[in-house]
């Protein structure tokens, strides 16, 4: 089977070790050189040194996640062209070392966004959650962003104010730290002042401006990736809604179509994340997988549950076990296996890496203190469930194919 089971690893400081990853049954590692500042070139010798660490654990560094796109690039701020050139050189260096799947994102200012990192899960354990009300409270009463009141509206302001008043000083500090922390393993944790400064840099930048910058970025880097045989896989917005007045352009099927039209080739591919895209009820995940399957270079598989708390059109949600919630990963597994069959019949021998994206904190996960959303036991459960789903889908397809050949 061309599907490759992978495991996110944040480097030597990760509380979940490479030995742990190998024992899950994964064969590929998804990692990045987090110690190198965003916008700088990843040197060949540093890449190879990290590869040696991974190989010593009898694993292979299969996917880079993430090779960061700087805010300078997204804003076309001074220095952005240098950052694009450095990104392209890092792609060349990774290809020289045999790593040919590179995930990146185009979310302005913040990557993933959560308001709660250790929320009690309905069936036990702990999970991550995004509360639109909590986020509005942060925006309105902690960040105090200009135009926030106008964007949220009276009903949302009233809900957010009532929520904010109920929080103790310690709870307010935790909310602020959670939102400003950014992506696990990322390069920086912003302060409120830094966030205000970055928002000023984005002032006046429209959705079309953000699209135009991405189009130019792809025009510059995709030919390099094509030459090197690298798939650049853009990750969807998480959550797939505009936040803090900043446009997000990787949230819907129409967004993905537009992106893929900018460069017609495998160098311009998708990191298809069922958890991020599945937050929106208007995203039909199974249909999207069926449509975009030939251009999916990397799979993030997880599920979320939307709850009734929707304010100003922004959904609230929490992460559930992989085969629960609203993502229908069984149906998605069947669509993915259809694509695997197509690639096998077409002679495409490149693997399609997937990982159990995130996981609930189960058993002794909290004692270990892993990165939020990336516990050991919870992800082990997720990977095991996905392995079973794909095995089921493969056997079902084989049975159907055999029955179709009967005269």
Describe this structure in words.
By secondary structure, the protein is of the alpha/beta class. It has one domain: Alpha-Beta Barrel (TIM Barrel). 46% of the residues lie in helices and 17% in strands. The chain contains 16 helices and twelve strands. The protein has helices at 18-23, 44-56, 71-75, 80-96, 132-143, 148-152, 154-166, 169-181, 192-202, 207-228, 253-261, 274-277, 285-292, 329-345, 365-368, 376-404; strands spanning 3-8, 28-31, 60-65, 101-105, 116-120, 126-130, 231-235, 268-273, 296-301, 303-311, 314-320, 352-356. The strands form two sheets. It has an eight-stranded parallel beta barrel with strand order 1-2-3-4-7-8-9-12, surrounded by four helices. It has a four-stranded antiparallel beta sheet with strand order 5-6-11-10. α4 (80-96) packs parallel to α10 and α13 packs parallel to α14 (329-345). It is globular, with a radius of gyration of 21 Å. The mean pLDDT is 94.
